[in-house]
Amino acid sequence: MASLSMDFLSESTFDLNDFSDFNRMDAHNETGNGKWYNTKSSYDLNEKGRSTEDMYQMTFQSKDPIIPISSPEKPPKKKLSSTVGGHGHGIPVEHPTSYVETLMHLLKGNVGSGIFAMGDAVKNAGIIVGPISILFLGMICLYCQHLLLSAAERVGLKADGTPPDFAETVEMVFAEGPPRLQRMSKTIKKVVNIFLCVTQVGFCCVYFVFIAKNLKQVLQNYDFDLDVHYNMAIIFLPILLTALVRNLKYLAPFSMFANLVMLIGLVITVYYIVQDLPSVEERDYVAPFNHMPLFFGTALFAFEGIGLVLPLQNEMKNPKNFSRPCGVLNVGMGSVIILYSIMGFISYLKFGEQIEGSVTLNLPRDEVLAQSVKLMISVGILLTYALQFYVPVEVIWPWFDNKFDFKHPVMAEMLFRLFLVSITFILAEAIPYLPLFISLVGAVSSTALALLFPPILHLVISYSRGELTFIQIFTDLFVMICGLIGACTGTYESVHSIINAFQNGTTTQ
Predict the structure, then answer these.
(1) Could you tell me which residues come within 8 angstroms of residue 349 by beta carbon, excluding any fewer than 6 positions away?
(2) What is the pTM of this model?
(3) Band of the pLDDT at 419, cuts 50, 70, 90?
(4) Spatial separation of the C-alpha atoms in residues 88 and 190, rounded to whole Å
(5) Which entry of 41, 129, 150, 473 is 20 to 30 Å from 275 by CA?
(6) Does the structure show a pLDDT above 70 at 69?
(7) Can you say whether residue 176 is alpha, beta or left, with left for phi > 0 and alpha for psi between -120 and 50 degrees?
């Protein structure tokens, strides 16, 4: 799901160089640079347009990268694109994290804007079925995260001696599988990155709608009743300004502030929700079956944080404490699953069928405290946009930069960022239906990342090593079938509902 701090920028990795490239580079350079990340901006210029060091390695645009980046030395004129692990969650490896610190990162990375949509998710499943389904789906996601950790551990380190991230793990597993899968290893890695990029762009689009709708309600109390589309236009400039910041170091204070206001906003929201709760009998125990796909997509949108696990484990002082029975992953995700289930239950119980795509929209419109919550959470999400936006930039921009020889690469990157922000703005304007948009993003890309790739990895690596058992086949196929059914039905129902919303003249005002 969407994270709220630079400690957990959403997941992506996009290494365009295969392992044979690494071997050739090692032969060309007897001693590698041994650096996990650069200390310069990605595009510092020399008299030829690039610094010599930057032609050898591509990094985050910051002196304090979010996660370690391994970039073997390369001959000039053939740049190595940045490698961004997982969600981009984590901190530099020279500052390993403790159990508690890693647990805090995991909790912050999974508790974001999606938690405010849990009430709408439960509405589409029922007051009884919804919370139970959240628990069930959360356990499946946790199981898949353990599968990813196991696959990464079994394939070992990359050719440059660094641990693999999500997409690299997929590539390495396929590379040692049957011949047909070996030929697909490079392609499947790119497919994973496409899903990661789609997920992040989807988050950014949801942020536009989320902020605009909350801002609209606040402005209405002061006689500024603007259409939600105009509110999106108002926030375009501040969002663009944050997205143009290339150095993450300068975003760190804003990220800390975003975390603080989000936490305060969540506490106040819960305070409002628990007041005068009605009886459970007033709510639907089981929602109509055709609404379940929307529940699935919304829940997966919130739970989609599987790329977080590898970077966090790799950065711990004692990585074994991450996946053991009482380790960070089980304790952290267990807490998140319970929190989501409770939040969804009380939100739907409080507001019933009137629950909005974000429960903040159900808070009183004429109370200053409730208005402050909407503003605080909107500010937190606005400041988070740049961090979520950073991943698609790191995925897509190196391709453009390699394809075209820009005389002014910094200016070219700024224009590219402007273009990409404009794309998210246009998409948000085109589909300003927050709950449906959340469900669509979750069903399309989050499902593939969270429920399809991990069991596939488990089956491939177990088969290639002669360790496949009937129980493994049955369990993994069950998870994959659940993911496929949820993805297909969720995508269809989300698109169908969006089309109906436009045809029926439904507005977001």
Answers:
(1) 127, 277, 278, 280, 283
(2) 0.69
(3) very high
(4) 17
(5) 129
(6) no
(7) alpha
